[in-house]
Design a protein that fits this description.
With 370 residues, the protein is an alpha/beta fold. Helices cover 34% and strands 21% of the residues. Helix 9 links the parallel strand 9 and strand 10. Bound molecules: 2-succinylbenzoate (OSB) and magnesium ion (MG).
Length: 370
Amino acid sequence: MKIDKIIIDHIKMPLVHPFETSFGKMSEKDFLVIQMHSGEYVGYGESVALPDPTYTEETTGTISYMLDQFLIPLLWREAIHHPDDVTEIFSPIRRNNMAKAAVEGAVWDLYSKQNGLPLAKALGGKRKTIDVGVSIGIEKSIDNLIEKVEHFLQEGYKKIKVKIKPGYDIEPLQKIREKFGYNIPLMADANSAYTLQDIEKLKKLDSLKLLMVEQPLGFDDIVDHAKLQKQMTTPICLDESINSREDARKAIELGSCKIINIKIGRVGGLSEAKKIHDLCAQRHIPVWCGGMLEGGIGRAHNIAITSLANFTIAGDTSASSRYWHEDIILPEVVLSKPGTIQVPAAPGIGYELNESIIQKYRISRKIYEN
Ligand code: OSB
Ligand code: MG
């Protein structure tokens, strides 16, 4: 693959509703849209970091810097025959996984288009449709939360994830159970808001029969999570702690989790995401695809990876309208049936860029030529 040109647009879009987690509140998202040109083909990538280094250490700004100073120059220097080569080419650079993934995702899209394959198929995915869930932020009141849960259940979402933090945990979840019963697929995400000192509180979650509790303890911890898992029946799912296949292997061997949330950006790209998927399949650990409030390109990559066989739990990839007034792709991501998204059958990500939306929300553009 000979890459001729890379165009990077920095865009900023308002969210339909503010999104609050234990680490902060967002009402807009800025991110990079990558267009990678090779002859007549264009591959698309998107940076998924948040504007602030609160979920991981990366931000849109650090990604822009890493691409400009290190990753794009490395890409020009080395030959790429397959997208997996990109992981290898970037391996001298420590971490900066979301920066790497933004470029690698564009290479995967380009490669799929050049070979006339849907990205899902190029990755080895077999599903034609995927089941999806929704992530609900910390709400102003429990009544607001209940209203949102009701709305998303009506849309057919197959997993309801509720953000929790100390002081907003057992009670909101209990109220959801009282109102909607124990049959709705409910889980909680703490985004590292607790420590082992909260163990008695965390053990109380067991009575709520949650599908899982996501990342209750330290963002980089696997030891304390293993201690906690031994004392809880609710499965622990790791998000922040898993940044590579090696992290996943160690967490599984220690017993730190029973489920893994795979985010393409957090693990450095689709190739690594696939490796984690394969490892988890061998070890009987179910996986699901997490979200980063992505624009349409990131959403499309999530849909493609979720088509792999061991993505057996509904992920966080909701429809475009969940976060955006208008998305950057055409068509937008929609639910084809309640709680279900169709995996595109066209080559590559299977969505086109909506140039007018990119222009409308663009802050700046950079062009790199090989
Ligand atoms: O922890 O999964 C998380 C959003 C931003 C950063 C971290 C997380 C999230 C979400 C939202 O939960 C998932 C989504 O709907 O995109
Ligand atoms: Mg999470």
